[in-house]
Design goal:
Distance between the termini: 43 Å
Number of helices: 13
CATH architecture: Orthogonal Bundle
CATH superfamily: ABC transporter involved in vitamin B12 uptake, BtuC
CATH topology: ABC transporter involved in vitamin B12 uptake, BtuC
Strand content: under 5%
Structural class: mainly alpha
CATH class: Mainly Alpha
């Protein structure tokens, strides 16, 4: 089966459209989070989303609609507590993360254990995404991308020097909460792409790969987006051709890009 034949399938078309939007969202947001040393928040929120998804399944409700408000509230709570107790941010994320997993296990046991439905949310299966899920993911991803574009310079100032941003009149508290909010949304829209357990890879790896070889913030953002999108496209086609899990394949392709970028940086340092 060649690429042209694969593209004829409706489920592949939906997967590609959703994957490209989600990859753009996560790879761009990841640059801001890594440079602000907030990348662990993605890992914590992904575990919270597992608990929320399990709750939705146990109640017989659409998991994404349940996960969205819960994960957003958790992201805002993490940011608020981090601002109040700045030196314990990682510990707070760990507490909320482990609590999310604990609730997820309990809710999963209530809904007859780890069945196929919850496993698809745990590890991702973008090839099974419905038209409604695709439209919701594209809408939310597009909304977040528009917000990042509109507030780009404020987020840029906050990322590199929070004190300077305050002096320059940037509403630091507001934009910190905005970043947390956007991260929460990105977790939810990524659930079907790579799952709750692998989300942080989609957020971190493209940005880390870009940071290895980029010389400016703008080039870092652009290259991160390119790596994220290409990884999703290659991952989807590879998983269909080889009949292997899509979420894991996308992450492995991202990892290969990081290893290439890291090796190139080390080589040119010599």
């Amino acid at each position: 089966m060649n690429i042209i034949e694969i593209l004829q399938f409706d489920f592949v078309q939906r997967a590609l459209i959703t994957g490209i939007f989600v990859a753009l969202l996560c790879s761009l947001l990841g640059v801001f989070l890594i440079l602000r040393r907030m990348s662990l928040i993605g890992d914590g929120l992904s575990h919270v989303s597992f608990g929320a998804v399990a709750l939705g399944l146990s109640l017989g409700l659409f998991p994404t609609f349940i996960a969205l408000p819960i994960v957003i509230l958790a992201s805002l709570l993490i940011n608020l507590l981090n601002q109040k107790t700045r030196y314990y941010g990682d510990a707070l994320i760990g507490i909320i993360s482990s609590s999310g997993i604990a609730f997820g296990i309990i809710f999963a046991s209530i809904s007859n254990g780890f069945n196929a439905d919850i496993l698809s949310y745990l590890f991702g299966n973008i090839l099974t995404i419905s038209t409604q899920e695709m439209l919701a993911s594209v809408f939310l991803s597009g909304l977040v991308l528009a917000i990042i574009y509109f507030f780009y310079y404020h987020l840029f100032a906050l990322t590199f020097n929070e004190d300077y941003a305050k002096i320059a009149g940037v509403k630091v508290t507001f934009y910190n909460q905005l970043i947390a909010l956007l991260t929460g949304i990105s977790v939810v829209v990524s659930i079907k792409v790579v799952g709750t357990m692998l989300f942080s890879a989609l957020l971190i790896i493209p940005a880390m790969a870009s940071l290895q070889i980029s010389r400016s913030f703008k080039s870092t953002v652009i290259l991160s987006a390119v790596i994220g999108v290409i990884s999703v496209i290659i991952g989807i086609f590879t998983s269909v051709m080889l009949n292997i899990p899509t979420g894991g394949t996308i992450v492995i392709v991202n990892l290969l890009f990081f290893l290439i970028a890291f090796s190139a940086r080390q080589f040119f340092k010599m």
